[in-house]
């Protein structure tokens, strides 16, 4: 398993590739992944010139996964973007507006050629496709079923999705329950890591609303989200990792009791009033590991 496969994706922080100050500071905010954006955040006239600074910018980041969002296939810029940014410091390509498995196949094949030409390990550069249209959500099962090993997981593009459907976002995000759930189900059914949720647009300064929406997202099976502002990184890292005191006690009891029982040859036990077997234990173990990783980060123990 590669380093990318085991990485947390609680926070994916974007910056426009043509904004020098934001690019320089992008790695300073403890996001799990940073993305230099060549797509929506860059004006059309600047998209091609913005490619030039990306290789050197990627080389300066230490710690987070280093990613670039390229332009979609329909723009005619996709393959030029890939040619410009593919190199040893690129961990992942974020591919927007995916609506078919064929689109991912084109990207995969082009990256395979570039890796061979540039002496990179085959499959070293992973993909994070964005599903953000009605057509993409409806076809999500086919897309996930046909996606190759280069795909780490999928990202939900909430903004483009609501525009595509003509939806006005609501505080409770009821309009997003179906696409969010469908994306999670398809990712998990076909063996991908939990997906990454889209950004919270309503108010960049409203921490309470951001955390509430992130907890809703987490309850549906997302393990992180795209963030639009550095201040949201800490909010999201906490929202997707934290366990309240009672939750922490419960998962610690489950993990400790089950692991002790397993050493004695048992894999079906009672912990308090709960029945615990391997699935219950594995869920508790994952929750505890994510919480402990968050606490290490909080205390300044982040690797890199």
What's the layout of helices and strands?
Blueprint (H helix, E strand, L loop, with lengths): L10 E6 L3 H6 L7 E5 L9 H4 L3 H7 L4 E5 L8 H8 L6 E4 L5 H17 L8 E6 L2 H5 L1 H7 L8 E2 L1 H8 L11 H13 L17 H14 L4 E3 L3 H9 L5 H19 L5 E3 L2 E3 L1 H21 L6
Parallel strand pairs: 1-2, 1-7, 2-3, 3-4, 4-5, 5-6
Antiparallel strand pairs: 8-9
Helix pairs in contact: 4-5, 7-9, 10-11, 12-13
Whole-number count of domains:
2
What are the low-pLDDT stretches, counting only 5+ consecutive residues below 50?
none
Query: Helical segment tally?
Result: 13
What structural category arises from helix and sheet content?
alpha/beta
- Named at the architecture level, the CATH assignment of the largest domain is Alpha-Beta Barrel
Tell me the β content: 5-15%
Question: How is this structure best described in words?
Answer:
By secondary structure, this protein is α/β, with parallel strands linked by helices. The protein folds into two domains: 11-239, Phosphoenolpyruvate-binding domains (TIM Barrel); 245-298. It has 13 helices and nine strands. It has helices at residues 20-25, 47-50, 54-60, 78-85, 101-117, 134-138, 140-146, 158-165, 177-189, 207-220, 231-239, 245-263, 278-298; strands spanning 11-16, 33-37, 65-69, 92-95, 126-131, 155-156, 225-227, 269-271, 274-276. Strands 6-5-4-3-2-1-7 form a seven-stranded parallel β-sheet. Helix 4 (78-85) packs parallel to helix 5 (101-117), helix 7 (140-146) runs parallel beside helix 9 (177-189) and helix 10 runs parallel beside helix 11. The mean pLDDT is 90.
């Amino acid at each position: 398993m590669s380093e990318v496969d085991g990485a947390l994706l609680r926070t994916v922080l974007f910056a426009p590739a043509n904004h020098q100050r934001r690019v320089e500071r992008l790695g300073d905010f403890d996001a799990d992944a940073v993305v230099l954006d060549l797509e929506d955040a860059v004006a059309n006239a600047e998209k091609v010139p913005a490619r030039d600074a990306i290789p050197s910018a990627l080389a300066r980041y230490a710690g987070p996964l280093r990613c670039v969002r390229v332009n979609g296939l329909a723009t005619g810029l996709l393959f030029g973007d890939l040619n410009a940014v593919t190199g040893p410091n690129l961990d992942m390509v974020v591919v927007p507006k995916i609506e078919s498995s064929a689109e991912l196949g084109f990207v995969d094949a082009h990256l395979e050629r570039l890796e061979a030409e540039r002496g990179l390990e085959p499959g070293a550069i992973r993909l994070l496709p964005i599903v953000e249209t009605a057509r993409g959500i409806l076809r999500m099962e086919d897309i996930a079923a046909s996606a190759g090993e280069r795909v780490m997981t999928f990202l939900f593009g909430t903004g483009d999705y609501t525009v595509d459907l003509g939806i006005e976002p609501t505080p409770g995000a009821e309009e997003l329950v179906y696409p969010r759930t469908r994306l999670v189900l398809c990712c998990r059914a076909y063996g991908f890591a939990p997906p990454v949720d889209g950004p919270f647009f309503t108010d960049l300064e409203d921490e309470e609303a951001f955390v509430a929406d992130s907890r809703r997202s987490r309850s549906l099976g997302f393990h992180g989200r795209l963030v639009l502002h550095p201040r949201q990184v800490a909010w999201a890292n906490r929202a997707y990792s934290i366990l309240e005191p009672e939750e922490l006690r419960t998962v610690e009891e489950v993990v400790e009791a089950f692991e002790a029982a397993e050493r004695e040859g048992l894999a079906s036990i009672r912990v308090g009033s709960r029945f615990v077997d391997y699935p219950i234990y594995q869920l508790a173990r994952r929750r505890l590991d994510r919480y402990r990783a968050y606490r290490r980060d909080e205390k300044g123990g982040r690797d890199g």
